[in-house]
Known about the structure:
Strand order of the largest sheet: 4-3-2-5-6
Helix content: 25-40%
Amino acid sequence: CLWANDARQDDRVLADAYERVAATYFDSLENDPRYAQFYKQVEEFVKRHVSGRTILDVGCGDGVFLSSMSNEWSKQGLDPSTTGASLARQRNLDVANATLDTASLRYEADVVSALDVIEHVIDPHQFVESFKRHLRPRGVVLLLTGDADSYSAKIAGPQWSYLRWCGHISVFSQAGLRKLLESHGYEILDWNRCEHPSSP
């Protein structure tokens, strides 16, 4: 696992940065067939492991993942970016401008999803522990993040594009992420390596 060791390790620096991101930061277009297909696969993956249909998407950005999910779901989201939360609400989604730690509500979700989020947090231990407050009994957490053991990461080394995103400060290998989750009492139900639609 790799961690940034610079000014980004300050919660206030990160919060200010995400507060100010422009709408162009969110590039996962709803009508992009790559994302539509990818998110459909993610939804089917989740449905194999949970019977309830309430989801809380943490770091939901502009809400494209939530809006792509079928109407059988009750959907809520959180995003630290004012712009992201506003764009998500324009899609008629119930999204708060907050994080798991600053949210005023205690959500009760069958699924807490965090797609492309854990790599942006300073304290991954606190992050995965905070899911528990919002999960129903037998609830499921869905995480998606880059893999430091992937073929592209090994070939590119320090030039791996995933390391060059300024917001990526906690990057995991499969073993590292598994160890993190299990140290907080999570049982790994399934693991799937996939190709992200924004991959080069």
